[in-house]
Write a structure and sequence with these properties.
The protein is about 0% helix and about 50% strand. The protein is mainly beta.
């Protein structure tokens, strides 16, 4: 069973940067797509971005494109989300997700594994 554990969330001010991490275990991830979703209170889960574990190709949601960067460390089985120029509307619980296959999936139902989430709050 795949397990995903996020860490690194916290309280930051608008314009700040923050990096959060997702440590993965339980399976080989060479054929997986890893990604991030977020959910603000009262809103639907929103696609943030994803990365192909083996190839490194990336895709981002429109709301974060140009500000957020997904990266991976194969040796550590860890995926990172570097968030720059943070805005109050970025405030949400951020979830690490994983699925088999290398397609870019924006539908949360297509992801089989979810972490517990880490809270990111952007406030002055």
């Amino acid at each position: 069973q795949v397990q995903l554990v996020e860490s690194g969330g916290g309280l930051v001010q608008p314009g700040d940067s923050l990096s959060i991490s997702c440590a993965a275990s339980g399976r080989t991830f060479s054929s997986y797509t890893m990604g991030w979703f977020r959910q603000a209170p009262g809103k639907e889960r929103e696609f943030v971005g994803c990365i192909h574990w083996g190839g490194g190709s990336r895709y981002y949601g429109d709301s974060v494109k140009g500000r957020f960067t997904i990266s991976r460390d194969n040796a550590k089985n860890t995926v990172y989300l570097q968030m720059n120029s943070l805005k109050p509307e970025d405030t949400a619980v951020y979830y690490c997700v994983a699925r088999m296959g290398w397609s870019f999936e924006l539908d949360p139902a297509r992801y089989d594994y979810w972490g517990q989430g880490t809270q990111v709050t952007v406030s002055s």
